[in-house]
Design a protein that fits this description.
This protein has eight helices and 17 strands. The protein is α+β, with helices and mostly antiparallel strands. The strands form six sheets. Strands 3, 4, 6, 7 and 8 form a five-stranded antiparallel beta sheet that branches. The longest helix has about 30 residues. The N terminus is likely disordered.
């Protein structure tokens, strides 16, 4: 009888603990979200995002929206998960192990997709305009030795045509870059030493030379790099060749001031470049000293600019890519 009583006491004492163990609520689930971007911080809409736990039945899939955003609700706490992101043209990305605390909301960071083949240009977008905008954004980061602007060269072998807005944006970017002003100041110093044009000496003469040089460059880029290319549907950029014999590449580079790529992708006479050089030279008659004005100024400035473009083509084709860090990994 004593044994029976002791057994009942043990069972009664253990019952609350057993009931408590059975009735204990599961930890509150959490949320995992994030934004899918590429290595240049451009959003990647439509990417496939998979969430995987320790059991196959915990596999879940969603699609990033137009802003690259994704979200998983009701994710079990205290359970190891991995997130895998995939998109056409990109290398798959898998997160480290994620274990949520009860009720925790985690915004996933570091999910930057690398383009297949380690290319530095984006080619996976829904429209040519978006492709062109991304390519221009990459070009605006191109700097020789990481300092000198190298915006007007295309290393991508599948370039998209520029919209009018992008042509003006690229021209304005080049005209207003701080290094542009430093370069103008340096050339003004050389002209000051040579006493040309006839502005005289002193601070006033230097300021006038600097203003004239900047005006020359500004009008040339805006007219030859934005206005005329928009009207004539031509592309003002230099398209890096990179293949062929040295002679063929040299001839290609030297012809760049005279032959350009149209917005259709076909090669045609470079009316934009030639017209921009002549128009800039004509406008310079408005601010050059009277002793330097006339048709000679127009054609002299145009000839100098054209010769500079030919030299720039050679340098672009054979030298500058090696010293432009962001261009080295492009296909």
């Amino acid at each position: 009888m004593l044994k029976i009583c002791l057994l009942l006491i043990c069972v009664c004492g253990a019952a609350p603990a057993i009931a408590q163990q059975v009735d204990a609520p599961e930890p509150q689930p959490g949320t995992i979200s994030g934004t899918v971007v590429d290595v240049n911080d451009g959003i990647v809409p439509g990417a496939t995002v998979a969430l995987d736990g320790p059991r196959p039945e915990e596999h879940r899939v969603t699609t990033a929206n137009d802003n690259g955003f994704f979200e998983f609700h009701n994710v079990k706490a205290e359970t190891p998960y991995h997130v895998t992101i995939s998109a056409d043209g990109f290398v798959n990305w898998t997160s480290p192990t994620i274990i949520l605390n009860p009720g925790q909301v985690v915004f996933l960071t570091g999910s930057k997709l690398t383009i297949t083949g380690a290319a530095a240009s984006v080619t996976v977008f829904s429209s040519p305009h978006e492709i062109a905008a991304e390519q221009v954004r990459i070009e605006e980061k191109q700097r020789v030795l990481g300092i000198i602007p190298n915006f007007y060269v295309v290393y991508d072998h599948k370039p998209a045509p520029l919209t009018m807005k992008l042509k003006f944006s690229l021209a304005l970017k080049a005209d207003t870059d701080p290094v542009t002003f430093l370069g103008v100041g340096f050339l003004a110093g050389i002209n000051q030493a040579a006493n040309t044009p006839d502005y005289g000496q002193g601070a006033k003469g230097y300021g006038q030379r600097m203003g004239a040089l900047y005006a020359n460059g500004f009008t040339d880029i805006m007219i030859g790099g934005a206005i005329l290319p928009s009207l004539l549907h031509q592309d003002p950029r230099y398209f890096y060749l990179g293949t062929g014999t040295t002679m063929s590449r040299a001839l290609y580079a030297l012809s760049s001031p005279f032959i350009c790529r149209g917005d259709t992708g076909r090669w045609q006479p470079n009316y934009s470049s030639i017209g921009g050089d002549l128009a800039s030279g004509a406008i310079s008659n408005a601010y050059y000293p009277s002793t330097n004005r006339g048709p000679g100024l127009v054609f002299a400035n145009a000839a100098i600019t054209t010769a500079g473009r030919m030299a720039n083509g050679l340098i672009q084709e054979f030298v500058l890519r090696k010293f432009t860090p962001s261009a080295k990994d492009q296909n």
